[in-house]
């Protein structure tokens, strides 16, 4: 998607019937947008129809492929005092409205000429371990809390470009595990603060909102967990669990090689910070990466 639009953030997953309509809805919106754009373009209706103009817009005329690697640091889990090394293999394939990305997931996306963006992807939330592990979030202090199982998620993103350098976005990440993990939502702003030749600096400000089950899963302490761990019981309920700010610097080195540096900070307000397992109200993520595009 163009730099001036909102990024499909990744934002942090067997599907329940409640959510099966979302992919169909987003695909329909993509098709409607493409059809509208096609109708507005000048077409010689007297020429024989090839039957492939809509498909060519859906499938595109070329594929963008890239592979890379990122290495940095992140909190051991949301609200942890300590940090863990972060290793992120990167690979993406995009053609037309279809996209597949190790980090962002697999799905469809579309951006209109007017700057409206809609995307729907399936991804995987790793959950949280009950011990310190560099492969997934977790901490030794959670030993008797039990682990949070990983789950498939369905993320729906809507965004609108307001001016060339600013867009607003809304996102819903739905856990497809029968409501055990819960759902989280996001409202945010994205600004292309600097763009010159090979360099682009993008700033993001987001509010992260968890439903009752999501906040209970990642910040709450049930009665059984209290008895096993000694932490006091805590039931945070629905609400904002974090505010995040991210600065992303993209650098194009050559025709094929590019680099990216992400600096992201998370602030946990009372909804999360009052949890007995939250040790620090501010967390930092640093992730430099390099990739090769074909």
Question: Top keywords for this entry?
Answer:
about 290 residues, alpha+beta, Porin, twelve-stranded antiparallel β-barrel, disordered N terminus
List the helices and strands and how they pair.
Blueprint (H helix, E strand, L loop, with lengths): L20 H20 L12 H7 L4 E12 L7 E13 L2 E4 L3 E7 L4 E10 L25 E13 L2 E10 L8 E13 L2 E12 L1 H8 L3 H7 L9 E14 L4 E11 L2 H4 L8 E12 L1
Antiparallel strand pairs: 1-2, 1-12, 2-3, 3-4, 4-5, 5-6, 6-7, 7-8, 8-9, 9-10, 10-11, 11-12
Note down, in words, how this protein is organized.
The structure is a single chain. The protein is an alpha+beta fold and 294 residues long. It has one domain: monomeric porin ompg (Porin, Beta Barrel), CATH 2.40.160.40. It has 5 helices and 12 strands. It has a 12-stranded antiparallel beta barrel. Strand 8 and strand 9 form a beta hairpin. The longest helix has 20 residues.
Give the number of DSSP strands. Answer: 12
Q: Describe the largest sheet.
A: 12 strands, antiparallel, barrel
Q: Assembly state here?
A: single chain
Number of helical elements: 5
**CATH homology group:** monomeric porin ompg
Overall residue-averaged pLDDT value: 86
Looking across the biggest beta sheet, what order are the strands in? Answer: 1-2-3-4-5-6-7-8-9-10-11-12
State the end-to-end CA separation.
Answer: 17 Å
Q: Give the C-level CATH assignment.
A: Mainly Beta
> CATH fold name, please?
Porin
The value of Rg in angstroms is 21 Å
Instruction: Please state roughly what percent of the residues sit in beta strands, choosing from under 5%, 5-15%, 15-25%, 25-35%, 35-45% or over 45%.
Output: 35-45%
Topology order in helix (H) and strand (E) letters = HHEEEEEEEEEHHEEHE
Helix/strand/pairing category: alpha+beta
- Outline, from the CA principal axes? globular
Number of domains: 1
The stretches of 5 or more residues where confidence is low (pLDDT under 50) are: 1-51
Give me the CATH architecture, please: Beta Barrel
Q: In percent, how helical is the residue content?
A: 10-25%
